[in-house]
Design brief:
The chain is α+β, with helices and mostly antiparallel strands and 158 residues long. The longest helix is centred in the first third of the chain and has 21 residues. It is 30% helix and 22% strand.
Length: 158
């Protein structure tokens, strides 16, 4: 049940990300974090490992600290040219849904669902969590979600 809630919460939050990105930060309760190009360059390897479901994010990682300003429901807006799975990334959402720290990472990529599914397929074999493509709110956007629920924790050596 918690796993379904995690996936549903992540999907709903990702669906609202394009709308949030268009609003002035002053109007948002959960303002998106943009960061500097240097911060993104330093954080890129850890973020890609998380988005590709290879490794959980470590909030204590010095490269991530400037971008991870809070623990729950964080939306990151990467600089232009940031890609995951070979696709342009519009936004990254990090959600911790309960006190047990079940975490899911989602990204909105500029691709149709079929293109995203094809791009993600090779990464699924190496994933240590559940990696999936969820329908986007527009035909040109897809949501790629990595879920690290309790069922997958035994795969990690942190």
């Amino acid at each position: 049940m918690k796993r379904i809630f995690t996936l549903l919460a992540t999907a709903l939050l990702l669906a609202n990300t394009p709308v949030m990105a268009q609003m002035p930060a002053a109007l948002l309760d959960n303002a998106a974090v943009t960061g500097t190009p240097e911060q993104w360059k330093a954080a890129r390897p850890a973020l890609l490992a998380a988005l590709e479901c290879r490794k959980k994010l470590n909030p204590k990682d010095p490269a991530l600290r400037p971008l991870l300003t809070k623990k729950i429901d964080l939306t990151l807006i990467p600089p232009q040219g940031f890609t995951a799975f070979g696709l342009p990334v519009q936004s990254i959402h990090i959600a911790t849904t309960d006190p047990d720290d079940e975490v899911s990472y989602g990204t909105v990529v500029a691709a149709t669902d079929a293109m995203a599914e094809k791009a993600v397929k090779p990464y699924k074999k190496k994933a240590k969590g559940e990696l999936m493509v969820i329908l986007g709110d527009k035909p040109s956007l897809s949501n790629v979600v990595c879920d690290f629920s309790e069922n997958y924790d035994q795969n990690f050596v942190d």
